[in-house]
Amino acid sequence: MEKLLFSVENISDVQESEDRHFANVQLDLFASGDNLHHVYVSDETLKNCAASAYNMPIVWKYDSWNDDIGGHSPTEVPCGFIFEKNNPIKFSVLDDGRTMLTLLGKIWKKYSGKLMSILKRDGGEKAVSVEMDITDFDEENNEIKGFSF
What we know:
The chain starts with a strand and ends with a strand. The chain is mainly beta. It has two helices and twelve strands, in the order E-E-E-E-H-E-E-E-E-E-E-H-E-E. Strands 1, 2, 3, 4, 5, 8, 9, 10, 11 and 12 form a ten-stranded mixed β-sheet that branches.
């Protein structure tokens, strides 16, 4: 099983949660179509695999050099999770015709270090990366047919 990292989508709409310990964040996790790895994902595959995002951690790393969120690193730490209860999977069609998968996540206010202040400073808009295991790949067509976050 191959693991791929994607750094193409975003986090937005940071809002207070009904639980004072968390902030809710809207996560545009992944889109169908061609991507930065130049592999294709159909709308059907995206929709079939979307629920694998539930209960996955949200991780981050502080980049002190840039006073910002860093990229993938072995020193990433959990700062939240994508919850399942009352969190319906949402799909929207992007301007370029691809379909975007969006879910809500919860970020711990107390245990996320400088993350909340960085999100506040930057208007709640940040690029995010997702990591997925490829469970079915069509090499002939360079297409992901199955994955899990």
